[in-house]
Amino acid sequence: MREKGSFLRLKWAIFCHVIDNWGDLGVCWRLACNLAERGQQVRLFVDNPEILQWMAPGGADGVEQLTWTTNQVPEAAIARKEQMDDVLIEAFGCKVPPDYLEEFARRTRRLGRSGTQWLNVEYLTAERYAQESHGLPSPVFHGPGAGLRKNFFYPGFVPETGGLLREPGLMDCRKNFRRDRWLRRQGIAWCGEMLISLFCYEPAALPLLMAQLASGPQPVLLLVCDGRGAQAARMALDQLAGSGSNLKLVFLPRLSQSEYDRLLWACDLNFVRGEDSLVRALWAGKALVWQAYEQTDKVHRSEEHTSELQSP
User: Fold this and answer.
1) The overall pTM is greater than 0.85
2) Residue 274 — left, alpha, or beta (φ > 0 → left; ψ -120 to 50 → alpha)?
3) For the chain, N or C: smaller number of CB within 10 Å?
4) Is residue 24 among the annotated active site residues?
5) What Rg do the C-alpha atoms of the chain give, in angstroms?
């Protein structure tokens, strides 16, 4: 996407359904802020807005937050037709409410298909189908959006896909970052130990990893993010008796997105999971370990499936 001011200022609507420990909202909020920073007008519809109170305290200029349910959006969001959005983003197939979609379809028919855009933003993947499916149209035959067309947008690691989110100036902020100052502001006592961040699900190997770190030759400070991983780390901690004393754990409070970025910058190694934390760990430029989301059919463990992945 080009820099602020180099293209038309549009009105965007992003619909987000919060699932799986906030990852979907994390991506949508970064997208909304990125668009706003580039001069766009953004409305973010969220079905669990309380999460933004800690994920993005204070909000962001140019981003309006609205609450929706699976069946309805606020009446004020569609009451004035002249304020209807130019671009509709259906994040991760969350199913846009019919009352909003009816008005969006009416605007599209009035302006013509080129006057609006409907995008279905999919999950990040390195599989080949992202290249093959990125940008493909999907005609809508039923419901209030009948006659319209949405296009698939696949983020990815190669030019044939939609790319990855990165806000302007991020690399300069990282370059000027001082981890000793940030750690002091967080109240983290650091005496030169190796710093590792942990943001995970409930990996079966976590107790073994922690035991190896505890008995290893180098002191380690493990900074554990709040959520499912913190519960797993506490359980593993109970099993560490007699495993050595070179491991110290710090259980962090919930961090805003900007503070999570700085956590990744501060650490020597980052354990991450999901889409948003993976991309931010890549931008951090530090060593990382990514925990794949386990599939019920165990496809994430399939050697045949793994061999089809594209290297970043």
Assistant:
1) yes
2) left
3) C
4) yes
5) 22
